[in-house]
Design goal:
- By secondary structure, the protein is mainly beta.
- It is 12% helix and 55% strand.
- The protein has a 9-stranded antiparallel beta sheet with strand order 1-2-3-4-5-6-7-8-9, with no helix packed on it.
- The radius of gyration is 31 Å and the shape is elongated.
- The relative contact order is 0.10.
Length: 183
C-alpha cells in the first residue's frame, strides 16, 4: 500500500511539474510584425457603376491601377470616365492620371484634364480643359481651383476655378473670368 501511495505522490508531483512548466516556464512567443495587406496592380481596367434603375451611371477605363497598401490610395494612369446623368446628359472626362482615396467617393484627376458635355439645354457641347479636377461620384459634381479654359461653339472663356453639377448640367466659373465671344 505504501508503494501505491509513493507512486501516486510521484505521479502528482510529475503532473504538477508538467503543469508548471506548461503554464509558467514557456518561452514568450516572438512578437509578430504588423502585416500589411497586399496592394494590387491591374492593367486594362474597365469599371462600371450602375444606378438603382440598373442603367449605367459611371464607366471608368484606365491603362493601369496600382494600390498603395499602406494608404489604400489607388493610382490610375491614362484615365477616361463616362458619366451618364439621370437627365440623359453624358459627360466624358479624360486625364493623364487619377488618384482614388479609400472609399472611392472622390476621384482626383491630374494632367491634361479634359471634360466634355452638354450643360443645360444648349445643343453645343462644352469643352473644359484644366490641370486638375476632382469628381465626387456621390454628389455627382466636378470641381477645380486651377485655371480653366472653357469652349462652347465658337466662344472661349478663361477662369480660375470651376464648379459643375453633372446631374443638373450646371457649370459655374469661379473667378477671374475672361471671355472671347465670336459672332
Amino acid at each position: 500500500m505504501t508503494a501505491r501511495i509513493v507512486l501516486f505522490a510521484a505521479f502528482i508531483a510529475l503532473f504538477a511539474v508538467l503543469v508548471q512548466w506548461r503554464l509558467f516556464d514557456r518561452e514568450a512567443e516572438p512578437e509578430t510584425a504588423d502585416v500589411q495587406r497586399p496592394g494590387y496592380f491591374l492593367t486594362g481596367v474597365d469599371l462600371e457603376e450602375f444606378g438603382a434603375d440598373g442603367a449605367l451611371r459611371i464607366g471608368l477605363q484606365s491603362i493601369s491601377a496600382n494600390e498603395d497598401p499602406a494608404s489604400g490610395v489607388v493610382r490610375l494612369a491614362d484615365v477616361a470616365v463616362d458619366y451618364h446623368a439621370p437627365t440623359g446628359k453624358d459627360w466624358h472626362l479624360t486625364a493623364a492620371e487619377a488618384r482614388v482615396p479609400p472609399g472611392g467617393r472622390l476621384v482626383e484627376f491630374e494632367g491634361e484634364v479634359h471634360l466634355r458635355g452638354a450643360p443645360g439645354d444648349d445643343a453645343h457641347p462644352a469643352e473644359l480643359e484644366t490641370a486638375r479636377m476632382t469628381l465626387d461620384t456621390v454628389a455627382e459634381t466636378a470641381q477645380t481651383n486651377s485655371p480653366v479654359e472653357l469652349a462652347f461653339g465658337m466662344h472661349r472663356m478663361h477662369a480660375l476655378g470651376m464648379r459643375a453639377d453633372l446631374k443638373a448640367g450646371n457649370l459655374k466659373l469661379v473667378s477671374d473670368v475672361n471671355g472671347h465671344f465670336t459672332p
